[in-house]
Amino acid sequence: MERYQADLEHEQLVVRRGERSGVYAIVAVHSTALGPALGGCRLWRYDDARAAVRDALRLARGMTHKSAVAGLPLGGGKGVLMLRQGEALSPARRRAALEDFGDTVEWLDGAYVTAEDVGTASRDMEVIARRTRHVSGRARRHGGSGDPSPSTALGVETSILAACERAFGSASLRGRSVAVIGLGHVGMRVARMLARRGATLLANDLDVTKRPAALALGARWVSAEEALRAPVDVVCPCALGGVLDDESVPALQAPVVAGAANNQLASDAVAQLLVDRGVLWVPDFVANAGGIVNIAVELEPGGYDPARARMRVRAIGDTVRAVLDAAEANATTPLAAAMELADARLADAGHPA
Ligand SMILES: NC(=O)c1ccc[n+]([C@@H]2O[C@H](COP(=O)([O-])OP(=O)(O)OC[C@H]3O[C@@H](n4cnc5c(N)ncnc54)[C@H](O)[C@@H]3O)[C@@H](O)[C@H]2O)c1
After folding, report:
1. How many CB atoms lie within 10 A of CB 231?
2. CATH code, 100
3. Are residues 85 and 111 in the same domain?
4. 208 lines ligand 1 (CB under 6 A)
């Protein structure tokens, strides 16, 4: 479902054809009011340029709010390397496209800082880094913060604990049950952490090769539909977006939903459906901010430090509590409360409303 009208409220939109590769690079800088606009570089196939530009604009705006609500000194941006449907890049042209992207990032002179995203990986950041300093998420041996997934998983675990404390009066997971949907880089780690805390697990992934590892954690393997409808304490979506909609929410039995998946709501209106159903939903961009919180530590004086990063990621629990408090106090949804918190921080920093 289309959730974003491509209204321009951005500071910059740059579209450049790569000199080496011919691949178009698009960078949207939504806001630098709170700091440099950080957001990943997505290498993806699109039907047309309009779809690619819209993706960059929408994702950049999302990054502004995600960083603002997490209290980070970062703005929001996003990069796209646009391929046409069916187009494949040879390794040499792919490298050339990444270097071209690096030139575009450098041209923006620090207004935008890139990172890995769908279609790019940490080693691609090394290629981009040949052309610009404004790259984050490089390998640890190059002074970067490395793979963001462990931090994202820690942030999700922290969010689940904060939400359970609110819903059940205790953050203990002993005797609690959680359905984890999607056992990828983040979901499998979350499942492991929850199992260690004594939770009973239900698990699902489209990819059945994940099943043995799930069973090894003591999880019961179920279908995706069963995971969403199960009488568990928590549903933890860690696969793709759009899982919460007009059909799935009325069937939910879990009092808490918190997970890593981006864009969990099929539309913003679903946030109210969840409240009406008595479900405590932690907004996805609050729960899954661990990766960006970890990256932000790279930009702190003294550079990246894993212990400091873990401390900052655990502070996501405070954000969850602040959002849930505000939602309760103002009789609004956690989505609206999180957006208001982000907007207030942006307004204080001078971002036009
Ligand atoms: N990796 C991070 O640091 C990070 C940060 C923020 C948000 N996220 C979001 O969290 C989610 C998971 O990220 P990831 O890095 O673990 O991705 P991943 O690709 O490693 O894992 C996703 C898993 O979900 C499974 N899956 C896909 N569709 C499914 C479906 N319909 N039903 C069940 N399983 C399905 C895949 O088989 C895969 O195992 C994504 O939405 C991502 O955008 C990730």
Report:
1. 8
2. 3.40.50.10860
3. yes
4. no
pLDDT computed for residue 2 by the predictor: 43
The pLDDT of residue 177 is above 90:
yes
Query: Ligand 1: which atom is nearest the Cα of residue 284?
Result: 7
- Is the C-alpha dihedral spanning 322, 190, 220, 284 positive or negative? positive
- How many angstroms separate the alpha carbon of residue 151 from the centre of ligand 1? 14
**Contact 85/9 with Cβ under 8 angstroms?**
no
- Tell me how many degrees the CA angle 66-118-179 measures, rounded to the nearest 5: 70
pLDDT value at residue 352: 78
Pair 162, 135 in one domain? no
Phi-psi region of 301 (alpha: psi -120 to 50; beta: other; left: phi over 0): beta
198 and 105 in one domain?
no
Token pair, residue 148, equals 């963001």
Total domains in the chain come to 2
For the CA of 183, the closest atom of ligand 1 is: 39
User: pLDDT digits over 224-282, tens only?
Assistant: 999 999 999 999 999 988 999 999 999 999 999 999 999 999 999 999 999 999 999 99
For 304-339, how does the pLDDT look when each residue is reduced to its tens digit (9 = 90+)? 999 999 999 999 999 999 999 999 999 999 999 999
Domain co-membership, 113 together with 235: no
For a mutational test of ligand 1's pocket, the pick from 152, 183, 190, i.e. the residue with the most ligand atoms closer than 8 A to its C-beta, is 152
* Ligand 1 lined by 224 (C-beta under 6 Å): yes
Q: Which two tokens stand for residue 344?
A: 């207030």
Residues 107 and 245 in one domain: no
Centroid of ligand 1 to alpha carbon of 181 (angstroms):
9
State the CATH number of the domain containing residue 156. Answer: 3.40.50.720
Average pLDDT over residues 115-142: 93
Segment 71-88, tens digit of pLDDT: 999 999 999 999 999 999
Domain range holding 22? 12-63+77-142
Q: Are residues 57 and 162 located together in one domain of the fold? A: no
227 and 89 together in one domain: no
Both 48 and 153 in a single domain?
no
- Whether residue 111 lies inside any domain: the answer is yes
Of 210, 258, 209, 263, the closest CA to residue 240 belongs to 263
